[in-house]
Design brief:
Blueprint lengths: L8 H28 L4 H24 L5 H9 L1 H33 L6 H13 L6
Helix pairs in contact: 1-2, 3-4, 4-5
Amino acid sequence: MRVKSRISSVNLFFLLVQTMIGVGLLSLPHQTHEAAGSDGWISILISGFFIQLIVLLIWLLCRNFPNLTLFDFSKVILGKTSGTILNFLYIIYLLTVICYIFIKYADTLKRWILPETPAWILFLITFVLLIFNPYQT
């Protein structure tokens, strides 16, 4: 089996859309409703619109720079220093999203399947599965 070291811009686009649907669409409205009641729907629509614009921008950039990664073409467009700062901010953002996904994952497992299991054990199991993935190359 041949494994590619890069993903195409189409695969990146669908990965971003799938992540947005999985994390944002399924959990954000519930949390907004808990905080703002029934008046939070307009903020969800506005933020969803801006997220779609950001995804469209990333897709267009991937289309214009097919052989470069997101980290590479940010340095090409913004320069080395500004591109590095933007890449650092993007990494911080991605780490924040990963932590949020882990917290939601553990919360869902604790509510539905494993109510007596401490959250740190669920985190440990998830990290071990990610680190020792047999399909990882």
